[in-house]
Design goal:
Blueprint (H helix, E strand, L loop, with lengths): L1 E8 L3 H11 L8 E2 L16 E8 L2 E7 L12 E7 L2 H11 L4 E7 L7 E5 L5 E6 L13 E2 L3 H4 L3 E4 L4 E8 L2 E4 L19 H12 L4 E2 L2 E2 L3 E3 L2 H9 L5 H4 L8 H5 E2 L1
Parallel strand pairs: 1-4, 5-8
Antiparallel strand pairs: 1-5, 2-3, 3-4, 6-7, 7-8, 9-16, 10-11, 11-12, 12-15, 13-14
Helix pairs in contact: 4-5
């Protein structure tokens, strides 16, 4: 297991890392920008921001990044602990244990840089990034599965609902999940203990603001396209749901069951 620190900056990561390299008499490391990462929804303002770099200071690996321009940045709350393990079961155990009573920022799932990655804030306000290191063998079946879009799936109308929200969706293309007109949105966002909006709710509010012309009286009046089920779930429920499991066809079969690759 590895245990490191991760420091976020608000657009000045490159300047900061070059400064620290000079202070600790190290070579300036290679830096990966958001523009070099495989993502399709990148904003132009974020293209040259630093997605990842690191410095080896003494025996410690310190990682650095710029937060996206639309993410709230609070000086002093920009440091996270990171854990890397080659054991998928250990990753799941640590993630599930630390999230109890806390707040999930990113669910544990596959990303372009790790087979399993998740980010959360524990009940004491500490931010953790937990990931699966390179390992041999197959992930256990309880791990976050990959999902595959198919033409068959694209012809199915899925329904997601809670006590206060409801919506129908069609996975039209690989990166186009359409929330159909007439969806009823959750009205009450999740709050932190101090009454402020939590991370998921802030992102959900941004999604709703971006689509405000398609919303009237907390009901969608036009079809809205999202990049993923997680994004749709935030928009519809304010978070707190696994939308892969919540979206179900008329027979109760979930989108996860329709598209999962074990």
């Amino acid at each position: 297991m590895t245990f490191d620190a991760f420091v976020n900056f608000n657009g000045n990561c490159k300047e900061a890392v070059e400064y620290y390299a000079k202070v600790f008499k190290l070579d300036v490391p290679k830096m990966m920008t958001y523009g070099e990462a495989p993502r399709e929804d990148l904003k132009e303002i974020d293209r040259d921001r630093i997605l990842y770099t690191n410095l080896k200071i003494g025996s410690n690996n310190i990682m650095f990044s710029d937060c996206p321009s639309d993410m709230e940045y609070i000086m002093g709350n920009n440091i996270a602990f990171t854990i890397g393990s080659s054991d998928a079961k250990e990753v799941e155990f640590l993630y599930n244990s630390l999230k109890e009573g806390g707040e999930v920022f990113m669910p544990l799932e596959e990303t372009f840089f790790s087979k399993l990655y998740g980010m959360l804030m524990d009940k004491f306000g500490i931010i953790w990034q937990i990931s699966l290191s390179e390992t041999e063998g197959k992930l256990p079946s309880s791990g976050k599965a990959k999902h595959k879009w198919t033409k068959e799936v694209s012809e199915i109308e899925f329904i997601a609902k809670s006590d206060n929200a409801y919506g129908k969706a069609i996975w039209r293309k690989r990166d186009e999940l359409v929330l159909l007109s007439g969806a009823k949105l959750e009205e009450r966002p999740q709050l932190n203990k101090d009454g402020s909006l939590n991370y998921s709710a802030r992102f959900a509010e941004k999604l709703r603001l971006d689509n405000e012309n398609e919303i009237d009286s907390n009901t969608t009046i036009e079809d809205i396209v999202f990049k993923s089920p997680n994004e749709l779930g935030l928009f519809l429920f304010y978070g707190g749901q696994n939308t892969w499991l919540e979206l179900k066809d008329s027979n109760g079969k979930s989108l996860d069951e329709w598209s999962r690759i074990d």
